[in-house]
Amino acid sequence: MTMEFASRCRGTSRIPADPSRPYVIEKGEGDRAHLFGDLITVYAGGEQTENAFNFFTVEGPKGDIIPAHLHADTYEVFYVTQGAVRLFVEDTEGRQTERLLTPGDFGFVPKDCPHAYRIERHHSQIVGVAAGPGGTFERFFETLGTPAEALGLPATPYVPEPERFASVSQQFDVRFLAGHEWGTSA
């Protein structure tokens, strides 16, 4: 049985907003959103952790690179549990690296470092955690994307209108880097 709670970001949420209340969520029953070809599921966010960190998964098919972006005040973790994900990162001195992450591999992206990723194999899954002094950004996914009630990937990719990218950057610690070039195999 799934209990529904309202939050400041959603009309209904499967995760309680009270940071002092323990809870358990069954696999896939967090707050879901579709963005591009992916399904993002949030299990804990700013409301539950007093903006200390978030915990989410990204599942998707083999596809295009996610647009380059950075977080000015947020550190981000990529932990691959299924499939393969190519992580692209540029440090604060402009050095770019790319790594293929497979199950059990961990990637860390410090704040202010441009990064992107591309899912390399169908049925891949990333566990993400983000934390920093600027709070958390997990509600970005459903704000830029679209909330999803059903389990599973979107039947057709959800690609937001270009002007929406700028509007979410003002609300969340996500700044897209239009035209960013990767000197790697991106």
From TrEMBL:
Instruction: State if Oxidoreductase is listed as a keyword.
Output: yes
Q: Which domain of life is it from?
A: Bacteria
| Entry keyword set | Dioxygenase, Oxidoreductase
Output the Gene Ontology terms for molecular function.
Answer: dioxygenase activity
Q: Which SUPFAM superfamilies match?
A: RmlC-like cupins
InterPro entries for this protein: Cupin_2, QDO-like, RmlC-like_jellyroll, RmlC_Cupin_sf
Report domain Cupin type-2 positions: 60-119
Q: What would be one Pfam family of this protein?
A: Cupin_2
**Record carries keyword Nucleotidyltransferase:** no
PANTHER family according to UniProt: PUTATIVE (AFU_ORTHOLOGUE AFUA_8G07350)-RELATED
Name of the molecule in the record = Quercetin 2,3-dioxygenase
Species this protein is from:
Streptomyces xanthii
